[in-house]
Design brief:
CATH topology of the domain at 274-452: Rossmann fold
Number of helices: 9
Shape: elongated
Radius of gyration: 29 Å
Strand order of the largest sheet: 5-4-6-10-12
CATH superfamily of the domain at 274-452: SGNH hydrolase
Amino acid sequence: MGFKHRLSSAAVIAAAFIVTFTAVPGRDRVLADRLGIQSRVEILKRDASSDSMHVYYEAGDKTCGNKNGWKSKGQMTTPVSGKKIETIKIKLSGKEYEGGIRYKVLCQGSSKWKSWVADGKQAGTASRRLEAIKIELTGDVKEHYDVCYRTLTQTYGWLNWAKNGEVSGTVGYSKKVQAIQIVLVPKDSGLPGNVSGIASQQEKAAMVKEDDGDAGNNNAASGAFSALRYEDNAVYYYDAKSGDNKTGWIKINGLSYYFDPAKNGRLTDFKVNDFFSKAVFIGNSTSEGLTTYFNSKGKKYLGGPLVAAKVSYTFNSDKAKLDGYMLKYKGSQLQAKALVKKAGSKYALIMMGTNDLVGTSASSVAKKYKSYIEGIQKENPGVVIYIQSTTPRRGTKNIKNLNNDKINELNKLMKSYAGSKSNVYFIDISTPLKDTDGNMKKSYCSDGYVHLNMKGYKVWVNTVVSYVRKQHLDNATAEAKKATEAAKTQAAATEAA
């Protein structure tokens, strides 16, 4: 229920002040709580003069209690002893709409979220610092407002805004929440900008090291596509026992999908790091530059995918096991099919053809390309192949009989091949790299010929990431539709029997 106070006269306000003041024992306690008392009186005054909805919040800890006083309209809670928050209370005021607010916290030393509390009750435990929080509106008010909040966290600074039940803070990093801001904004009006002159230091609302514990402690079984349901043009994950929809990151066949708690558990995202941590990029000197790009982003960027590439590497050198012109893995020269097996890669992203097309027709190279892929699949049953289109070259001069017409023809042949094979997909990385004349853009080329600079690799990688994310979300949708139809068929058969 919303926080409603009706004050008809100044005498009532004065009485409220007296009752609150006299309830505080001892001079020291009065001095310590002075700010809180003053804040509460101000809240009563504001509530009496306005029907508009506002959110108020009070943070504290074991040492200093709640001497911060109540804050509102995005005010930052003043850091308390040790610059940490252990407890928090949140409530609504105003008579504009019926409803309330509830919130839950993740505390130090625990992987499980505390139960929801609501409307001014204390969340958290004194002596255990808060590390993350979720806040959401209830009742009629949630149809008209969004609650937005962000946290100042140890190490990471101010995180970006979270909204309507999303996580704010850190999960799995043991970093304390040092301050918080909370605001109400009109429904679907977007996230706030700089409030109280504070700019977010991170693009993310939360730093999550491991999967969100709300998703059944991440114990969703492999092959759990059967638990997906397709309703109202959206995908949901249902608990087989309770029938309730689950939320958070849920692993399905070793890959993580996000069922958004702020959207009633609707599928909204796919964790690409899970995919790329099991992937290998294979190619020649053009692909070799991916190593430099990934390292520039950090060793665990995209889950730390393996890059197996070699200067002057071709289909012929792989087949002939040509010394010095083969792929390497942990110091050993290997054919691609052996490397994929030894590395245990589940996904192979291949970009070949540049060297192979020199003095050779596109159709001849395509034949070798197909044989190369089929050799990898034969040696590694179940591996999924992604053919990344052969990148364009810069300029129109016919160097070494390599031109963009031949490259385009090879790409067309390999795209057709991928469409006819199981577990083989084609990703067009060349089109985003081209200028209006169909050549590699000058701004993406490092040598005026075929090699990319870091800007070019960024376009390449982002194109692959977007493809993989969309592919897996589309696949989950297809599987959800299949599971839903199967459930309907089964229900009809049972009823008929």
